[in-house]
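Session log. Operator J.P. requested a structure for one protein chain; no other inputs attached. Running the standard single-chain path with token output.
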Amino acid sequence: MAFFIGLYSNRKLQLSESSEDLKVLGQPIDKWGNLDSKKFRHAYSGLRSYIFIALVAKTEIDWIALDKGDIKVSTVVTNLIETMEEYANYGFSVMEEKLKADPSYFFSTDRSLTSSCNLLTSNLKFQQKTKN
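Structure written below.
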């Protein structure tokens, strides 16, 4: 969810260099979208593919230079990971702000839906301002 908040807001936040800011959370990427639950949740294995497609589109990579061997595959992978982490980091910062203001924020269907719509709307307004 955090990645998509950053992506749809078109905002990235660099990771902090300070070990004091490090927060340990998450789940291995091979588990993203794979888990079914007995209550309401179904596996969605396409999630990783959509994230990868978004990363390829949003990361500055010279694919021709990669094909020619002018840049290393590991450099491209590092760039893709960095883009994913920065989008997710922005999303986590938004989520953290919402939870500080209201600890039950993400347990309300109406508020979560409204928040998602507001993110999309604010991104469109932001893009229009930057074009002018």
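Operator note: The chain has a mean pLDDT of 80.
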